[in-house]
Design a protein that fits this description.
Methyltransferase, Cobalt-precorrin-4 Transmethylase, Domain 2; Cobalt-precorrin-4 Transmethylase, domain 1; 6-stranded mixed β-sheet; 9 helices; about 20% strand; disordered N terminus
Length: about 325
């Protein structure tokens, strides 16, 4: 067991989420894998909870906030962002299943994947709308028009909660701008699931999604990670996870960076790390150590060779 010392070091979670499973069976063989990285700074005196500011709404704004009279059912012209399992089919909620059953349309990131989910849930075939990062410019106006015409729509991602590192963000913004009632149907989330078992302080935490694959944007993100003083959440694709951990472990600020001239430079390789693989599945794996230790573990599991995979693949966009 690794002893964690709460000093001025940042902790890291690495989480790899993969295919759906139902009673030990793979849900979709083609489901992409990715890693979730979470880094947090612990306090020498223990966990520190910061106060979260509460936004005050005017009476005029409050009147525009929509409410559903009967939870578990859908209303005409309303859009529901439905969370689906991140790995284990049994994590689907009753309300999510009812919403998918009753909605006029289902907006999906990958319609083939969602059709398979509906089949496993014994939900009859629904009218599907494809909405992903490559067609969102045309699909968003179509979805908004459907909602304004009185159609009920359930929005799902390939896995997890829509709108978290996927095209659902732009859709929600467009629906809100058109005054279409939007409702969350909460459920599984890779970020929250990993945070809940991390043992790291989560107030606050910052979610950055995927690191840029290369170039100045990647260096800028590594600098932000280095400077972060609270829990930090990152996603990473499997073919880049080793290189990302290596970059994190070896990163040191540039001498030209005036903002860090008076800061004592400490390698991020010694920061505490948690590695979560295949969360919620039968073969779920959760390992703890430093960034360097987790990296060495991944290298050993890959046969002792550092993965030199080129960045010729796009990272998945679903949560």
């Amino acid at each position: 067991m690794i002893k964690r010392i709460y000093d001025e070091r940042t902790e890291l979670i690495v989480c790899k989420r993969t295919k759906f499973c139902s009673l030990g069976q793979s849900f979709v063989a083609s489901m992409r894998w990715y890693f979730l990285l979470i880094m947090s700074l612990s306090n020498a005196m223990g966990f520190h909870r910061s106060l979260v500011p509460v936004r005050l709404f005017s009476a005029k704004v409050v009147k525009t906030i929509s409410r559903t009279k009967h939870f578990g059912t859908v209303s005409p012209g309303h859009v529901y962002f439905v969370a689906t399992p991140i790995g284990n089919l049994q994590d689907i909620t009753i309300r999510a299943k009812e919403t998918l059953l009753e909605a006029d349309y289902i907006c999906a990131e990958d319609t083939r994947h969602t059709i398979n989910l509906l089949r496993l849930l014994q939900i009859p075939h629904k009218q599907m709308i494809s909405h992903h990062e490559h067609n969102h410019h045309s699909s968003i106006p179509y979805i908004v028009d459907l909602a304004l015409s009185g159609k009920s729509i359930a929005v799902v991602s390939d896995a997890g909660t829509p709108g978290i590192s996927d095209p659902g963000t732009e859709l929600a913004a467009a629906l809100a701008k058109a005054n279409v009632p939007i409702h969350p149907v909460p459920g599984p989330s890779a970020v929250i699931s990993a945070l809940s078992i991390s043992g790291f302080p989560c107030s606050p935490f910052t979610f950055y999604g995927f690191l840029p694959a290369k170039g100045t944007a990647r260096k800028d993100m590594l600098k932000q990670i280095y400077e972060t003083k609270h829990t930090l959440v990152l996603y990473e694709a499997p073919h880049r996870i080793q290189r990302t951990l290596q970059d994190i472990a070896s990163y040191t600020p540039s001498e030209a960076d005036n903002s860090l001239l008076n800061v004592e430079h400490v390698s991020m390789g010694s920061r505490v790390c948690v590695c979560c693989r295949e969360l919620t599945k039968v073969h779920e794996q959760i390992s703890r150590g430093t960034v360097q230790q987790v990296l060495q573990g991944l290298i050993q599991s890959a046969g002792g060779q550092l993965d030199q995979h080129k960045d010729n693949e796009e990272e998945p966009v679903s949560e």
